[in-house]
Amino acid sequence: MTDTDADADAEALAERVREGDLRLYELDDHADAATAAAARRRLLERETGAALDVTGDYAFDPESAADANVENLVGGTQLPLGVAGPLAVDGDAASDSYHLPLATTEGALVASINRGCSAITAAGGANARVTKRGMTRAPVFRVADVTEGAEVARWVDENVEELRETAEATTSHGTLEDVTHYVVGDNVYLRFAYDTADAMGMNMATIATRAACEVVEAETPASLVALSGNLCADKKPAAINAVEGRGRTVTADVRVPRDVVEERFGVAPEAVAEVNTRKNLVGSAKAGSLGFNAHAANVVAAVFLATGQDAAQVVEGANCITTVEAREGELYASVNLASLEVGTVGGGTTLPTQAEALDVLGVRGGGDPAGSNADELAEVIAAGALAGELSLLAALASRHLSSAHEELGR
Ligand SMILES: CC(C)(COP(=O)([O-])OP(=O)([O-])OC[C@H]1O[C@@H](n2cnc3c(N)ncnc32)[C@H](O)[C@@H]1OP(=O)([O-])[O-])[C@@H](O)C(=O)NCCC(=O)NCCSC(=O)C[C@@](C)(O)CC(=O)[O-]
Ligand SMILES: NC(=O)C1=CN([C@@H]2O[C@H](COP(=O)(O)OP(=O)(O)OC[C@H]3O[C@@H](n4cnc5c(N)ncnc54)[C@H](OP(=O)(O)O)[C@@H]3O)[C@@H](O)[C@H]2O)C=CC1
């Protein structure tokens, strides 16, 4: 098909939508994804006066994207991609020097993370460990009253094996770790937690839990009201994620010799520790925050966008506690991300630039053993968050935050 033919097809489809013959989302039934996207751009251009030439110049396969990632495809959006590192990370799965791909529009952010990476690597690298795995889905059921609710809870405790068998029959990679019940009046919430290997696992967990819910309804008086009862808790600030974890619970720490702190950041460890205490701990407590950190979300968001993670789950990725101690000859610092939801297969990880970013980290696809690639990604993100915390805290201590953004962010 020549460009002229494709243009003519897109125009004809756009006309059919304008005439009310077709809806935007029905275009894929009448043309390939690229032509349907071109028709939608024409419609938007006519209606809004916007020019969408750059939006139409995208690098991914429109058919695959329309199949698994987006509906009503019109094109692609682009973000600047920077890199920070090398960052030495010694984890259970991560044991290398990494360059972090960071998609961002915030000037000074990459420089800051880079400065933190430089200091951590000069100090010998960061330790990192995934200490818990569990992607959760928590349906809500209606029962008659608390008596019935307690009966359902008891049934769940006695029949976890049946639920596990049913749930795991829907996936060849996921395993049901546990089911926790919560009875609130005539509501019963069941928080299913899965080890989803290298997948972030939300689709996997949701499909598996739907199957398990059919068993609960068949064998108890509970009636399913919603497959997600918000006790999961997906993409919302929730203490349960900050305490119990969701996805991967991952922690990283580093001991930076005093002279490296002073040389790299221009401040003493005591100054960094004081900013952390008064800002990240006391200030966060007074704010009623779930995240006791400076900007872990910045690092999580930048790596998430670069590597095809679910951007909305930065909400949970921000559940981070940062600790800093000024010790005799060194600064000790740690970050503790309770609910980091990452995958190296599935979701947006197969899009071309996202897959390339995962290749930069050496974690694309399924790991051996299963789950090890997602573990490695989680450990590297935690170490990156540690780098960002150190640099920003030091910049606040040295009063360089605003000048840095004036210089690099404007
Ligand atoms: C901007 C710096 C790094 C300058 O810091 P500096 O020490 O003046 O820079 P330097 O020229 O001496 O270089 C030191 C290191 O910085 C890095 N670096 C230095 N320049 C660059 C550059 N152009 N590109 C890449 N890397 C750069 C680089 O790693 C270099 O070390 P080397 O690798 O050479 O050994 C520092 O002032 C800084 O980090 N400031 C903090 C900025 C920051 O963290 N911003 C992001 C958070 S702002 C926000 O969104 C969150 C917030 C603040 O609202 C949250 C809250 O409420 O707290
Ligand atoms: N459904 C929902 O309610 C929500 C969905 N999402 C979306 O879910 C998507 C992520 O879901 P997710 O289930 O991770 O991804 P996918 O839906 O893309 O499924 C990933 C699948 O890859 C297969 N797979 C192959 N190799 C591996 C491996 N090594 N480890 C694990 N799985 C492997 C598994 O198939 P199999 O299971 O057959 O073995 C797994 O289910 C994102 O697009 C996100 O935006 C986000 C929030 C809510």
Automatic annotation (TrEMBL):
GO biological process, one term: isoprenoid biosynthetic process
Catalyses which reaction(s): (R)-mevalonate + 2 NADP(+) + CoA = (3S)-3-hydroxy-3-methylglutaryl-CoA + 2 NADPH + 2 H(+)
Leading EC class: oxidoreductase
Entry-linked Pfam families: HMG-CoA_red
Record has Oxidoreductase as a keyword: yes
Keyword NADP applies: yes
Pathway field: Metabolic intermediate biosynthesis; (R)-mevalonate biosynthesis; (R)-mevalonate from acetyl-CoA: step 3/3
GO MF, one example: hydroxymethylglutaryl-CoA reductase (NADPH) activity
The organism's place on the tree of life at top rank: Archaea
EC number: 1.1.1.34
Keyword annotations from UniProtKB, A to Z: NADP, Oxidoreductase
Entries under InterPro entries matching the protein: HMG_CoA_Rdtase, HMG_CoA_Rdtase_cat_sf, HMG_CoA_Rdtase_CS, HMG_CoA_Rdtase_eu_arc, HMG_CoA_Rdtase_NAD(P)-bd_sf, HMG_CoA_Rdtase_sub-bd_dom_sf
Record-stated family: Belongs to the HMG-CoA reductase family.
Protein name (record): 3-hydroxy-3-methylglutaryl coenzyme A reductase
Organism of derivation: Halarchaeum acidiphilum MH1-52-1
